[in-house]
Amino acid sequence: MFYKPTEGHGLPHNPFSAIVSPRPIGWISTRGNNGLDNLAPYSFFNAVAYEPPQVMFAANGSKADRDFGKDTLSNIRETGVFCINIVDYASRDLMNATSASHPAHVNEFEAAGIDHMECETIPCGRVAKAPASLECRMTQIVQLEGKSSHAVFGEVIGIHMRDDCVIDGVFDVTTFQPLSRLGYRDYAVVKEVFSLTRPDDKK
C-alpha cells in the first residue's frame, strides 16, 4: 500500500513508528531551577556524532502547567543540561512507570521508586542502576514542524558505564539486554549480536 500522511492511512493505528524501528530509548533525567527532579522516557532518541560525542531526542506535546513543552523540555531550557540513561530489560516496568502523566512538581524517581545518584559534571540526577548514563550539555533546541514538537541536541560531557557491563574492554550490550521501542505498544530486547566486516576493512 501507499499513503500520504496528510491524507491518512486508513489503518486502525498509525504505522509510522512501527516502520521506523527499533529505536533506542532515552530515559532522560532533568532538574529544574527549583531543584525538582524529573525522569521520562523518549523513543525518538539517538546518537548523532562521534567527535565530540553528541545525541539528540525529540519531544512532542505540551502540558497545561508548563509554559514550554513538557517537564523535560522546560527543565532543559532552564538549566541547559540533561542526562540520558540507557534502559535495560530488567528496568522495563520502571521505565514504563515514568511515562505516566504527573503534575510538574512530581519527582518521577520517587513516584516510581527508582534509586538515583548525582551526576558528576552537571547539576542533575541519574538512574543509579542504569547500564550507562550520558551527561549532556544542551547545544540547541530546534522547533520542528507541527504543534509543540522540538528536537534537542546535546554534547556528551560525561559518561557512566556500569562495571559489570564492561567485558574484556568492551561495553557488552548482551550483559544488560537494552530495550528498544517498536510501534504501537510494542518493545524489543537485544539478547544476541553478530558482527559484519566493512568492505574497506578487508583491504
From TrEMBL:
<feature type="domain" description="Flavin reductase like">
    <location>
        <begin position="20"/>
        <end position="173"/>
    </location>
</feature>
<dbReference type="InterPro" id="IPR012349">
    <property type="entry name" value="Split_barrel_FMN-bd"/>
</dbReference>
<dbReference type="Pfam" id="PF01613">
    <property type="entry name" value="Flavin_Reduct"/>
</dbReference>
<protein>
    <submittedName>
        <fullName>Flavin reductase family protein</fullName>
    </submittedName>
</protein>
<dbReference type="InterPro" id="IPR002563">
    <property type="entry name" value="Flavin_Rdtase-like_dom"/>
</dbReference>
